[in-house]
Every structure is written in C-alpha cells, then in structure tokens.
Amino acid sequence: MLVYAITPIHVPDEELRRRQRRYDHLSPDGLTVELHDIGTGAPRALETSEQVRESERQVAAALRDVGPAYDALLPDCVLDPGVAAAREAGVARMDGMLRLSLAHAAREGRTVGAVTRNRAIADELTAVAATYGHPVHEVAILDLGLDAIADDARWVAAMTGAVEALAAAGAEVVVNGCSAVDLDAAGGTPVPVIDPAALALRMLAAGERV
C-alpha cells in the first residue's frame, strides 16, 4: 500500500525529514508513506481558528490533485483537514487519523479523552469528533509551543499529568492530539494513550478503513 501524506502547516526541510523518518519507523510491512510539505503559502502553525480553517482549505485542495498511483490519502494531522468533505464527495481513499482512532476506540466501547497543544486545536478536535458521531469526553490543553512537537521529552512530561487528570475524569483511552509527536519515551499512564499516526497506519495496512 502506498500512502500520500501531507503536512497541515508549512514545515522546514529538517522537520519534514524528521516526520518522514517517523513514518518510516511506524509503517507496517507492505505499507509506505510519502510525506509532502503543504507549501510556503500555508500557515506555519495552528494557533488560531483562522489558521485551522486555512490549513483545512489548503490540504483539501492539495489532496484533490493527487494521482491514482496512491492507495490512500492521509493528512499528517489529527484534525483530519479535508477528510469530511472528501468522504462526502465519495473519495473513499481519503482517510483521517482522528476518524480511525475514534472508530477504534468506539469498537472497544471506551470513553475517549484527548490532549492538545493549544485551545484552537482542542476546539477543532472536539468539533470534528462530534461530526463523526464519536464525541470526546474531555480535552486537556497542554499550553505548549510549536517547538514542543519535536521535543519528545517535553511533550511527554506535559502529557503525562494531563492523562492522569483525564483518567480521573472518566476517560478510558486518550488520543494524543498531534500526529507528529514520538511517544516512545512515554512511561506508564493510568489509561492507554493513542498515537494517532501509528494506529492509523496499522489500521490501513490491515484494511480496517471506516
């Protein structure tokens, strides 16, 4: 399976290479991800609702032009930009990390919580989850800058306490609200934490499209 992935924001070449290495590490046998940068005209970060909307518009436009050689199209973003519109238009090869993660949790009958970097991402994740019919019980905001995405130890340190609070509030599984964070450094948490990129690739490789 060949997957075309695209970043939701414009990232430097070094960050694009880091994310590609992560996909190479996560990809099951028989699945290859080609990650592409969205381009210099896109937002450099998702800090506001306006940037979230612009990212969604540009990702959707870029993925409409991808040729038939790719078996799946996957935004490199847990907010699934462009996924709902594409699926409504009958683009079956368009998949979303949040869509897949929530479907997986729903099959297991688990109450879902999430952690996100900031308020704008939290609001969008909550709204997108509701459109899928799999509402998120509660979202914890980590209040981290963009640079924390590539700083695994910093992200995991902030996430661990948030997961404990979410578990105390009733969450039985927590979605990590960033697709580009490596969770290998995460220790024990009271409930499982979903790496949305890793789970999405496993589901795609197994043919578990929803």
In spatial order, strands of the major sheet run 5-4-6-7
Overall geometric form: globular
CATH second-level architecture of the largest domain: 3-Layer(aba) Sandwich
Multimerization status: single chain
| DSSP strand content | 5-15%
* Biggest sheet statistics: 4 strands, parallel
What's the Cα radius of gyration?
A: 16 Å
The class by helix and strand makeup works out as: alpha/beta
Poorly predicted regions are: none
- According to DSSP, the number of beta strands is 7
Helix content: 40-55%
Can you count the helices? 7
Total domains, how many? 2
What is the H/E order? EHEHEHHEHEHEEH
CATH fold topology of the largest domain: Rossmann fold
Quote the average pLDDT. Answer: 95
What is the rounded distance between the termini? 17 Å
CATH class of the largest domain: Alpha Beta
Description of the molecule:
The chain is of the alpha/beta class and 210 residues long. The chain folds into two domains: 2-96 and 200-205, Rossmann fold (3-Layer(aba) Sandwich); 98-198, Rossmann fold. The protein has helices at 13-26, 49-64, 83-88, 97-107, 119-131, 152-168, 196-205, and strands at residues 2-6, 32-36, 72-75, 112-116, 138-141, 173-176, 193-194. The strands form two sheets. Strands 5-4-6-7 form a four-stranded parallel beta sheet, sandwiched between helices. The chain has a three-stranded parallel beta sheet with strand order 2-1-3. The longest helix has 17 residues, at 152-168. The protein starts with a strand and ends in a 5-residue tail after the last helix. The model has no long low-confidence stretch (mean pLDDT 95).
